[in-house]
Amino acid sequence: xxxxxxxxxxxxxxxxxxxxALAKELDTPRMMEFDTFVAWGKPxxxxxxxxxxxxxxxxxxxxxxxxxxxxxxxxxxxxxxxxIALAHGGTCEGKPGPRGDNFYAAYFRDPDGNKLxxxxxxxxxx
Length: 126
Fold this sequence. Notes:
CATH superfamily: 2,3-Dihydroxybiphenyl 1,2-Dioxygenase, domain 1
Number of domains: 1
CATH architecture: Roll
Protein name: Glyoxalase
Pfam families: Glyoxalase (PF00903)
Organism: Glycocaulis albus
Radius of gyration: 14 Å
CATH class: Alpha Beta
Number of strands: 8
Domain VOC: 1-121
Structural class: alpha/beta
């Protein structure tokens, strides 16, 4: 079980504006805040997400093949999360739409280039 995912940032203020907007749509508050680290989530809830300046002091870089998936409650929320991401400095990696028979998703990157998606399972896998 994943407790939380941490993504590096070179601009914590910009990252916080991006993730605060997504978290608001998902009704998920900030859970922890430090000078170099902010986490969103609900204690005892689903996995959370955090943005941090790297501990070693070097620049944050993007992990190739790494992606964080945000579970939406319906297709409309997939669209809203995608729109919120783009309105807060994110970039498009795939507009909202079906991906196969039972998966609906939108793909985007945060201002630091970390890849995310908003998704909904629309039926059983198989």
